[in-house]
Amino acid sequence: MLTQILLTTVLLPLVLGVVIALVGKGATSRSILLTALLIPVAGAIASVSIEGFPPFPPIAAKQKLPLLLLIGGVVFAILGVLLRDFVNRWIISLVGVVSLAAPAWWLGRNVLASNATKATTLAIVLVVVAIEIATVSGRRAGKTSSSALPAALLATAIGTALAAILGGYIGMAQMNGALAALFGGWLLVRYIAYIRGDDAAFDLQGFAALSFIWTAAMGTTMTVLLSPSASPAALVLSVLPVAVFAILNWRKVGFINQSRFLRPLIIGALTAIPAIAAIVIAVLAGG
Asked: Where exactly are the structural domains of the chain?
């Protein structure tokens, strides 16, 4: 049992993240489209490995998740091709809002209609994520702080996983843990490239950045909807690491006086502060 959990929750998504980082390296249109496609698809593979193949058409929300992730990856890639010459802040923001709102309603309209607390929590989470998408898409990451976005999403996945397990839903704890391993595998490859001299190793642009943020947000959305007693405050805090990225990027914080290998680690620790607060609140709420 433990071996299977480690395989499906850690090893498989970690390897997928490594592969995506390798095939999607560089800032070319091809690399951006591959990343936009493969990150949600990898999330779908992780979901199926954890929960098994869902029936078709899916009925329960957890059965809809892998199909949703697969559709999301394909749509982001197609839009990336069709809108290649028109990608700007407003296009990314519009796609981001629609891609957040429609799945939330499809996955949990019954829960949202009957549970005011979950509806309010999810509304706050999605508004925060939408603002983050608009902020991130409006400004290209500087070389000094580009590692903060993927590090922030790693922190979000970890914070949401722990909020889920303390909130009584092991399935979404595993799924968010798998997303953390996926992002961690990607980060590992890019970190090695960065310390070898590639200043743009962590850059996420356009639909690739949207794909990363959206995939993490779907994990949080499912946790809000399905965890019996997850702390609403902890779940909101779990999506705030990207806000820290936006601040670091705006202020052009890069710790350039520190050793090169330390810079991404320090930035990652800073982006993790809201997620750490989320974990503390989840522990206190569960204890």
From this structure: 1-286
